[in-house]
Amino acid sequence: KKSTFSNKAQSSQFSPNLWDLSVVLEGVKINIIKKCIGFLRLEILNLDISILNSLRRVMVSELPSISPSEIFIFKNTSLINDEIISHRIGLIPIKVDPRLFVFRSKHEIKNQNNIIVMSLKQINYSFLKSFKKSIMSACIKWNPYGSRVPYQTKTFFNNCQLNSAPNIKHCFLDILISRLKSKQRIFLESHCDKSVGLEHAKYSCVSVVWMYSHSTTVVVKDAESTHSSTNKFLKVLKLSKIKEYTKNFTINFNNLKYKMNQKVKNRI
User: Fold this and answer.
1) How do residues 213-224 score in pLDDT, each as one tens digit?
2) φ, ψ (nearest 5 deg) of residue 93
3) 57: helix, coil or strand?
4) pTM for the whole structure
5) Left, alpha or beta for 151 (phi > 0: left; psi -120 to 50: alpha)?
6) How many helices and strands, by DSSP H and E, does the chain display?
């Protein structure tokens, strides 16, 4: 019965191939409303909400980015624990093109092709107890020549990264990491690799993706509907009266449902 029903549905004039990309993208329009640093607003017309939600999930969890994977803290005399400092540094996005680097497997040696080394070395030299030095994300510097302690961190660079990658830095340079009192110091190294948001939230290339759905309701006059036990059809009689129309009808074949969104500019 299922095979007979599917053959009848496909043979009907109201049943295009749902898996055809040209059918899904028919009449789709993309308008850029606002574009600036760190923000993009789009208007997508004539596309199903399920496909939009799939694009949102891909942007959040499947696009590759670079984020700190290992942080080696050699000296920390501040009031903040090592784990909290590592967590704060790990969530700061890095401004770099991920296509310049490759994915690193679990047991692969860290080299100039799969690792970015960034270091932080700050000391409060003030003798005033009331003065506290703020450590911002701009204090974390990129080391294109690799780790300063390669045998401890097991990171070995054969070449410098200055030729293969541009100036690498954090996207936001005003993020507070810690504050140091008199004679306190922090010395650490951050090793960043390439991965996707499915592994950890720090690899998400975007922080938030949201969308609004605006639907259009169209009333079709002079139409006949035929009902039966196996199918349900919608037949429009007087289409010649429509000057500019695009399909905006929902046709149900029991469990088979597809929508083609369009706008009717002239009434029937």
Assistant:
1) 777 666 666 555
2) -70, 150
3) helix
4) 0.68
5) alpha
6) 5, 14
